[in-house]
Amino acid sequence: MGSATEYNRRDVFKRAAAATVLAAGSSSLLAACAAGGGGSSDNKGTAPSGSGSATNPFGVKSSDPLDVVIFKGGYGDDYARAFEDMYKKNYSGASVSHLGTQDISPKLQPRFNAGNPPDVVDDSGAQAMRLDVLEKAGQLTDLTVLLDAPYLDNPSQKIRDVLLPGTIDQGTIDGKMYSLNYVYTVYGLWYSNKLFKDKGWTPPKTWDDFLTLCATIKASGIAPFCHQGKYPYYANYLIMDLVAKQAGPDLVKRIDALDPTAFDDPAVLAGVSAFFQIMQKDYLLPGTNGMTHTESQTAWCQGKAAFIPCGSWLENEMIKVTPADFDMAFLPVPSLAGDKMPQNAVRAGAGEPFIVPAKAKNQVGGLEFLRIMLTKEGSGKFAAAANSLTVLKDGIGPDVVLKPGTKSSAQAVSAAGSNTFNYTYADLQTAFETEMENATTDLVNSRITPQQWVARCKAATSKKV
């Protein structure tokens, strides 16, 4: 089972499978659009004016059916059924059809081509439809009308006022927001609090303390570190977080812009060199370089390794194999000497894009569905069902019982305050990201040095999507 956010940001989220889908399918999508089957570039993202009533700003008709398609990955789809029940309470005459699937593009591309898309789609997973392709084909609703709609819990506020920083930017293409990235994902290291308490180990705050603890962990007969070797972007989370915290947010922007001189910054070599010490000191779980994400994460849940890098979907993704007393915990990436960002800084941002197709039969219903998602009730239902945070500010009420890992990551976000950062290259620069992954695969297998890794990534900045 793949993670929802894993595949929308790491695949991030749109790996080889997504690239294959794009290569095979985008031409037919564009051709269909050109033929008038689903919008045109001259009429992109037509949306309602938002001139309905205060309580029904989009003018939803209670009798109109709603068609919902959800990526059924690491978050499951139970949360979406809860949203659908909320929708039906407000619009009692509506029938709601629901499809939970991992085959987003295979199932939906024919519908988009025929001009008969669903009303709202969680466009995620390894086979997600490419948002940039959909936008260029005029297939996405401009969500500005949603941003300007009243917030259901407090109509004196607009939706845009209650979203966490970066949410609008993450869903913006060519200056307009076309996707609501609903899940607020936190990235870092993870460990078992029970294991650490049993062993008397203290979670490290500095990289030197991390390496010292790794030596102690190895001496106890446990591998200090494992990673999802077949998917090297997980290791890149750690590498690039070390880089970001060492250099500060300006370098993050330069890397996202594929500025080749960004890789001349000493922080890049410092970050990858720190990471490489894990290999030099033989702290890897044997075999982890060839494991899938679920294989390595299962080994970690079994206590075969102490640390693993991942996003906050981890807890829900591994819920069926995690021991009841495991007490999963999140750790911000430990600090290097001279870091420009504080130790509690974390990579965090919006993921899991929800879209309303421009040619949806019940376009206004799709927009209202998103508005219902952005309530404390909706956010709480998602947190309880999917064990993850949403992009709604203060979206988790005291009545919501969080699992240990989700609670831990929520506390980390709160502690970080404004000291959060995020990269966009994984979403927007696929060719560069692929080259970086290839370099990291060679690095974790000790086939290249940190200096060679930096040189290869710098060269990869010339590879534009």
Task: Give the tags.
single chain, 465 residues, alpha/beta, D-Maltodextrin-Binding Protein, domain 2, 20 helices, disordered N terminus, Bact_solute-bd_prot1, Carbohydrate ABC transporter, N-acetylglucosamine/diacetylchitobiose-binding protein, TAT_signal, signal
Percent of residues in helices comes to 40-55%
Query: With helices defined by DSSP (H or I, 4 residues minimum), what is the helix count?
Result: 20
Distance between the termini: 28 Å
Strand tally, please?
Answer: 14
Label the structural class: alpha/beta
Number of domains: 2
Rg, alpha carbons: 22 Å
Please name the CATH topology of the largest domain.
Answer: D-Maltodextrin-Binding Protein, domain 2
- The CATH architecture of the largest domain comes to 3-Layer(aba) Sandwich
Which homologous superfamily in CATH is the superfamily of the largest domain? Periplasmic binding protein-like II
**pLDDT averaged over residues:** 89
Strand content: 5-15%
* The CATH C-level class name of the largest domain: Alpha Beta
Name the quaternary structure. single chain
For the largest beta-sheet, the strand count, sense and barrel status come to: 10 strands, mixed
Q: What is the overall silhouette?
A: globular
Uncertain stretches: 1-43
Short description:
This protein is of the alpha/beta class and 465 residues long. Helices cover 43% and strands 14% of the residues. The chain folds into two domains: 4-177 and 356-397, Periplasmic binding protein-like II (D-Maltodextrin-Binding Protein, domain 2, 3-Layer(aba) Sandwich), CATH 3.40.190; 187-345 and 425-460, D-Maltodextrin-Binding Protein, domain 2.
